[in-house]
Structure formats: C-alpha cells, structure tokens
Amino acid sequence: MHEIWPGKATPLGATFDGAGTNFAIYSEVAEKIELCLIDREGHEQVLVLPERAGHVFHGYVQALLPGQRYGYRVYGPWDPARGHRCDPTKLLLDPYAKAVERGRWSLVTSPWFDWSGDHPPNVPWHRTVIYEVHVRGFTQRHPDIPPEIRGTYAGLGHPAAIAHLKSLGVTAVELLPVHEFIHERFLRRKGLRNYWGYASVGYFAPHGEYAARGSDGHQVSEFKDMVRALHAAGIEVILD
Question: Are residues 58 and 147 part of one domain?
Fold first, then answer.
C-alpha cells in the first residue's frame, strides 16, 4: 500500500522524478480530491491529496513508477447551471495526463527519452511546405510500410513514409488530431468510429490507438521516436 506526502503544486499532472510521482491538479471549486491508484485487476487504492496551494491540490507518492494507472474523484458542488459538476462517483481523467490507457485511465509516464541531439529543423518560412497528415490514413496503404505498423506513429516515422514526404518537397507535417480522443456514443451506436479525432480528452497525451506498441504508455515513446525521425530528415512537426 502506498502512502502520500505533501508534494508540490507544480508542474500540473503526474510527474515521475526517479524516486516517486508527484500529482497536482487544478480546481477552483473542489472541496476535496482523491487520487485513485488502479491495479491491473481494476482495484482502487484511494489517497486524499493532502495539500492545497491556491487552487492546486497536490501530493507525492514515493516509489510509484511509470505505467501506474490513476484517476481522480472530486468532491464539491453540483450546480450544472454554473458549470459545477463535482461528482465523486465518476473516476476522472487527469486533464494533464501524458498518456491514457484505453480511454479509461490516466497513466504515469517516464520523462526520460534519448533524443540523440534532436532539434526542430526551423525551416525558413519562405521555404516551408506544410503537408496536412492523418497518421492512420497516410500510412494505412503505403506498400513499403510494414503491415504491422501501418496506421501508427511508427508507420509515419518509417523510412518509406519519410522518403515519400521528401519526394513531395514537404518540409513540415501538420498532424490531424493526435491527442487522446474518444469515439462519441452516437457514432458507436451506428457502428462508426471517430476517424478525424476532433473530440479530445487529453491534450498532452498521444492517442493510444495510433501506437503499434500498445496504449499502456508506449504511445509516448513511439510518438517521440516518430518526431525524432522526422526531424532527422529535416521535416518539422506541427500539431493541429
């Protein structure tokens, strides 16, 4: 069982420092916020965030590692007319989560990645050619991209995809939504899915379904691998 310490109010989200994880979440109306740690069987350990700095609730859990599932339960007013919808029966995603698993749980992630000296190409505007790209659609049918990584970040970072972009003279890709998004209920009732991604629920989390390596946190490193490969080819990356 984990214990929770005061931690600090910045940065927002879940931040792993090598020894544990700091949690910080902003709310102007909450009276109490519970951090819920979820194990692989779906059981919750509930820890009340012990400190508050202004409107930021925060706490630190020692030895809590990347890959840990978590969510929040918020206690406070229920007044929809004023935009207040505190309902502790709902397990909430962290709005600052860096990864989301299966659209249900926020994930603690590792901040470390070997960027190998990466830096944005900074192509001058007068030489810039921007190509709008859908990660899944662009890579789904390219014959030289291995079938197992088509439709993924790994597919867009594959040499065949990059060679095609270079042949077009592209200097920047503008990615259609790659933030974690949901498939709306009215679409699911019709047997459809949200192809375009304009229903984001996690603006800091790469969409897990676009990861060849799965949505249990590997989507973050796979997204970074893609960016590093595109930058190495002189192609800038812009998010829609």
Answer: no
The backbone torsions φ and ψ at residue 13, rounded to the nearest 5 degrees and listed phi first, read 100, -165
Q: For the residues of 22-39, what is the DSSP string, one character each? A: EEEEE-SS-SEEEEEEE-
Q: How far apart are CA 101 and CA 199, in angstroms?
A: 16
pLDDT in tens, 124-168: 999 999 999 999 999 999 999 999 999 999 999 999 999 999 999
Question: Which of 53, 75, 107 is the C-terminal boundary of a domain?
Answer: 107
Let me know if residue 160 belongs to a domain.
yes
First and final CA of the chain: distance in angstroms?
41
Give the pLDDT of residue 229. Answer: 99
Partners of residue 25 on adjacent β-strands = 57
Residues 6+ apart with CB under 8 A from 214: 208
For residue 102, the tally of other CB atoms under 10 A from its CB is: 11
